[in-house]
Amino acid sequence: MPLTLFDKVWNEHVVVTREDGEDLLWIDRHFVHEGSHHAFAKLKAREAKAARPDLTFGVADHYVPVRTRRREDFADDIRTMLGRLENNCAEQNIELFGLDDPRQGIVHVVGPEQGLTLPGLTLVCGDSHTSTHGAFGAIAFGIGASEAAHVLMTQTLWQMKPKQMRITVDGALPEGVSAKDIALNIIAKVGADGARGHALEYAGSAIRSLSMEGRLTLCNLSIESGARCGMVAPDETTFEWIRSRPLAPEGAVLEQAIEHWRTLQSDPDAAFDSEVSLDASSLVPTVTWGTSPEDALPVTASLPDPAKTSHQAKAQHQREALDYMGLRPGQRIEDIAVDRVFIGSCTNSRIEDLRAAAKILAGRKAVVPGLVSPGSSLIKARAEQEGLDRIFVDAGLEWVEAGCSMCVGMNGDLVGPGERCASTTNRNFRGRQGPGARTHLMSPAMAAAAAVTGHLTDLRKLETGAAA
Amino acid sequence: MTPFTAITSAAVRLPLSNVDTDQLLPARFMSQPRSEGYGDFLLHDLSRDDDGNLRPDFALNAPEAEGAQVLVARRNFGGGSSREGAVYALVDHGFRCVIAPSFGDIFSNNAANNGLLTAQAAEDDVEFLLTTEEDVSVDLRDCTIHAAGRRIAFDINPVKREKLLNGWEDVDLTLSRKAKIDAFSDRDRHRRPWLVPAQR
Prior knowledge:
heterodimer, A: alpha/beta, Aconitase, domain 3, five-stranded parallel β-sheet, 32% helix, globular, B: alpha/beta, Aconitase, domain 4, four-stranded parallel β-sheet, 16% strand
């Protein structure tokens, strides 16, 4: 029987299948962070030890301050959260990429950067954006605290095999259009719950042409269409990334692995439960206007009018979203003024993202305040070698340390009530960036363009006259 | 975990789509230990005005909501993050069942691990429930809801149903298969020698 990429990886991890159809899956990698404290508490309650600390890695990201690394400057609750992670990892003998580690960063940036994320793995973390790691052809998904405790204690997880959806994106991406725009258009097309219960495979020439950074952004946003996970079949781009990563296999073992990884492709006749396709060449830089990532439109468009929407629940969502966002039906998107920008998060904080933003900002000034937080301390160092930090600072933006920061505000980096933020993050939910905060999602280059003009802007207009 | 068979209770009706995990439990409460209870954090920002006072017009704050064990909402309930705290907030507030046309996958898994039933009903049935005021009966044995004279069938993954009916916890079930897990791991070590990171 022809198999999909997902089938092949899944089948390699089934320890046992129960009568009711659930599979006990072996888990190859488990990442924990400050938010994993509930899972550790469950272990403590049972006086249990981690079964495979050698396959478990801790990363400090959600709560880390990015404007200072001096612990005495931290708020008490943040010090508590960081200390709790340090203690839990030490007690369970789990390697921690902690606050003082030069490899520290956002878990979904650090895993791939260190070579911990590999093709064909099963990888879990108590964070929904774990789907990111699927960019390598791994089955990677977010889990809750009870499941995380289960993985810690058994290195396995009971899972019902999900349905499968293939999203084929063919054609060449126009100038100024990125993986973020592909992802936002997919979410708008299938809906925020449209891929619920499905594993996604991204295929097609536009996906093949994406760098690993682009694939990571794309897979990161799989969860925003409700999918369990998203995958891209590994290829030379993937293998090239893995070679020379510090914790990746090397030498003969790596060659043996690559030989196996080359088989991780969907067979030509493999069947999917559903198929979606998108023409990359028709895409336009895209932004969200509402309070769900599915509320995405080309920056050239105008806002929807609930009075003209026949579906009652949909019209009500639009009305409430426009109201929360402080916007009018029919308003031109490019007329929306922003109060600040945020460039960062597990979605868009990798070196390519920073380069794309810097390209727009070079020789220009931001007219609104903004924060630029690289995805890891190593990316920060690299960006500084390339002089990108100077471009951000000269433009008037704040260049800070690595962490989840203003994507979710757990470290105190908040967008104020009623403030509007052009953000390279993954969720525009009500209150996501702080109580009353208004979030517009977009690519790093688009966020940079908004910083320069002070309103949502089609970056293609800027690029023609770019000073850089 | 408390098994779930059937309940009859007042219901809180939220005619909202995309009640995501950030609304169910705003991120700033996630650092709290569970022992202190998450019930007061439920829908914290939606249920309060800008000054932090409870909004009397919000369904959760109505006198009829007192003691309600059933919540009815529109599509994509619990979409978003994996925070199990979103489920703790519902459970600690006293809810045992949420009825909606669709749920976030991770949220549903977390719910089943905490004895909370996520009953997936057809959109027009949910719209009907949103218009009623009577108590709602939910029976997991035959997967039906009874309210205002209407009988509504709901869906739930059969594995989750079994788990909820019996109040099972996965870990004990899994540990009883430890020999199989160990055998898998031994085999796998030879099959995939690249699995354990190099510098460990």
